[in-house]
């Protein structure tokens, strides 16, 4: 009986192997899928599998690492693993995230052995508004802990920094400007408080004296906040020359004044006040302005890693965004730095994602529908590889033809996926490298599914579900 069982097991195994082989024989890759498969480099959870990225970044001053969703574990983990190696092995000086300046500054103090926080989770506490899971998640927590530990063994000047480059922190940045000026220059603080009074037109909560009536126009308010920024820059320059000046504190002041200035421009555009321009362009131009300010603060040779969505970090000129007059961080950085900038994108075919069904709603783990036919994601799925790296600078020529590409932001609307989450792009012109993970899992928030309500006007992005 025992011999019969063994024979039966062997027979079944051989039958299944034969069926599998037959199925594989019947699966014929398209010429392009076969070419992509031949050019692809398999990757795994072993950080050493990203050696090709490290080699490509060896001469770069800026490495931009994107993501196709704001809630995929593999994207966050891979980005963190690559960044750790860029800092530890190549001496990169800072990480800039698609997050707000004041909240990230608390993390920056923590990783540089400053401030009162004792854990990474405490340091991330200020990321409280929707969508809080973007930065309050287990991967970012672990990265921040690693960065603090790594920095502990470095002299202060060599400690890598952590900054935010977004502009949704108008209320907090206004408070930070007034707080700093009250100590540095009380007279300027009083003038600034008066000029910032016009911000109450955007939200009454931004008025220190509710009895005052706001009469300034949007254009006058824009001039007011520009005037504050100019005065702050002058003060920072003067105080920065003094012996013992706290350059980090002065830079923090200047950057918060920059946020207020650009956030007002963004709100004018979002609310269509007096032809304020494209809010998308204003936001991405602010991000680049912040990147340049950080590099100037850290030194002319500073090397930085940038974390944001693919839609911000891939070159917009290679997408339908560019045809609609929109630019982005990837385009502006590539135009300024050329080959000294490395643009890395990430994609997935299916799996799960942490996202919200509508703006300001609690986060959920949602099933990602299999990618559409005719998309880059479906082409990569058809290679049969579970995860791989593709150097797009040496990719098959046919890959440059425009195809669909998926973008899932903080909202995921599977019922209208084609309209809500796909756009046309030429991936080899959009990025230098792409990492594909065929089946992915959802990012794990630190706060479960909880979401915090945001200020209705000041932090609400456009209603469009594409990541904004």
TrEMBL record:
Keyword terms, alphabetized: Signal
Ranges in coiled-coil conformation: none
Record's signal peptide: 1-25
CDD domains membership: Ere-like (cd14728)
PROSITE patterns from the UniProt entry: PROKAR_LIPOPROTEIN
Top-level lineage group: Bacteria
Protein name as it appears in the record: Erythromycin esterase family protein
């Amino acid at each position: 009986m025992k011999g019969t069982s063994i024979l039966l097991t062997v027979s079944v195994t051989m039958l299944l192997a034969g069926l599998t082989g037959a199925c594989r024989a019947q699966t014929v890759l398209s010429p392009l899928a076969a070419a992509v498969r031949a050019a692809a480099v398999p990757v795994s959870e072993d950080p050493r599998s990203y050696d090709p990225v490290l080699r490509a970044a060896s001469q770069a001053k800026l490495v931009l690492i994107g993501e196709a969703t704001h809630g995929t574990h593999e994207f966050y983990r891979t980005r963190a693993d690559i960044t750790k190696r860029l800092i530890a092995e190549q001496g990169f000086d800072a990480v800039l995230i698609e997050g707000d300046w004041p909240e990230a500054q608390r993390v920056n103090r923590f990783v540089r052995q400053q401030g009162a926080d004792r854990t990474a989770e405490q340091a991330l506490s200020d990321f409280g508004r929707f969508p809080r899971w973007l930065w309050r998640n287990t991967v970012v927590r672990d990265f921040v802990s690693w960065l603090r530990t790594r920095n502990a063994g470095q002299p202060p000047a060599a400690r890598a920094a952590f900054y935010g480059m977004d502009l949704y922190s108008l209320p907090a940045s206004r408070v930070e400007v007034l707080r700093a000026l009250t100590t540095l220059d009380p007279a300027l603080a009083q003038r600034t408080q008066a000029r910032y009074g016009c911000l109450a037109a955007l939200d009454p909560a931004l008025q220190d004296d509710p009895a005052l009536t706001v009469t300034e126009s949007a254009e006058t308010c824009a001039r007011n906040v520009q005037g504050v920024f100019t005065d702050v820059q002058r003060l920072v320059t003067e105080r920065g020359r003094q012996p013992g000046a706290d350059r980090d504190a002065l830079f923090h002041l200047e950057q918060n004044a920059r946020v207020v200035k650009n956030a007002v421009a963004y709100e004018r555009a979002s609310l269509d006040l007096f032809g304020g321009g494209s809010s998308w362009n204003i936001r991405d131009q602010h991000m680049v302005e912040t990147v340049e300010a950080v590099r100037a603060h850290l030194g002319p040779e500073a090397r930085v890693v940038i974390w944001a969505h693919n839609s911000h970090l891939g070159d917009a000129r290679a997408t339908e965004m560019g045809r609609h007059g929109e630019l982005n961080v990837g385009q502006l950085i590539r135009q300024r730095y050329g080959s000294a900038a490395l643009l890395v994108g990430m994609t997935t075919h299916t799996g799960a994602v942490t996202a919200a069904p509508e703006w300001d709603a609690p986060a959920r783990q949602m099933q990602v529908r299999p990618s559409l036919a005719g998309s880059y994601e479906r082409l990569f799925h058809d290679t049969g590889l579970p995860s791989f790296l593709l150097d797009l600078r040496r990719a098959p020529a046919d890959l440059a033809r425009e195809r669909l590409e998926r973008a899932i932001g903080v909202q995921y609307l599977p019922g209208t996926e084609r309209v809500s989450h796909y756009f046309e792009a030429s991936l080899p012109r959009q990025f230098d490298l792409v990492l594909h993970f065929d089946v992915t899992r959802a990012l794990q928030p630190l706060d479960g599914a909880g979401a915090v309500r945001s200020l209705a006007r000041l932090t609400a992005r456009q209603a469009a579900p594409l990541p904004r």
